[in-house]
Amino acid sequence: FPANRIQKAEMANVIIGIHGLGNKPPKKVLEEWWLLSMAEGLEKKKIIARSAHFEIAFWADIIHKQSLDPEEKDPESPLFIDEKYETAPEDFVPEDISTRKRIVDFLGPQMNRIFLNDDLTLNYSFITDAVISRYFNDLEEYYTGTITTANNAIVRTAYVIRERLYELLQKHRNDKIMLLSHSMGSVIAFDVLTFLAREIKVNTLVTMGSPLGLPVVISRIAAEQKQRGIYKGRIATPPGVVENWYNFSDILDKVAFNYRLSDYYNENEAGVKPVDFLVVNDYEANGVRNPHKSFGYLRTPEFAEILNTFLLTEKLSAREKLAKKVAFLKEGLRSKLKGIKKK
Fold it and tell me: pTM of the prediction?
């Protein structure tokens, strides 16, 4: 998968990524690791992909003063990276997820019924606030923090972070965009596409390990929509997403606990709503599995198929694109049916 280069055409295929929670290595390193992950997935599917420009909307430096250091050898250093890019383990064996899936499928909707009112205001906010403060520091900073700019203006942290992605989308507004978002990056992507970049067309939105199904996130989005006068009783896919929204979750990923985004997000005027896929995130570091890691999501065979389809769209006719999309959805349905039969 050729990295960071493109033959500029009238409308070129462009891939924009936005990373998730926590401090990160420098932008160029993270971009290289994402590209290696995508290349690994394509190689496993024996796909030779076309080239495309790729760039990450990097925002970790807004909250974290110093990037993680790939060369740091001391595990006790705050700049040490304990989960670098690693190729998939050859002896990886997926767990039996049938019991956990039944539990999650029951508890997820119940949790949202308990914590969300019909108007998407939040019940028991003291509980959700405590959880965010304890486990999601960057998300808390995003929602409640402020930053003092060079001219001594005080600005919400969320606005500064959103601007990074908005600038990239503006830069490529005349290109065909695939937007890849991981973890908290999916919240930022949704907010930017809903509140800042409503007129910019995004061909394909991909969310991975997303917390967009959590009550606190849904209520925050609804509250800002009400404040801006665009709330319509339900939250819909951002207006600029014109072709696809694919949502990938590993059932063991705690951040994506409520993984069925199609239950909570309506289709937009283009008829686009989330298509949810349960996948196996095979990332391991030092023998310890992390089913939330971006590298594992980016090399799943399901994502490789979507990536390849997007890269081919400059060549495909409308009929060919539709046929390829239908074939992919049928394959996903067959996989689900096989899982049901095994139970």
Answer: 0.86
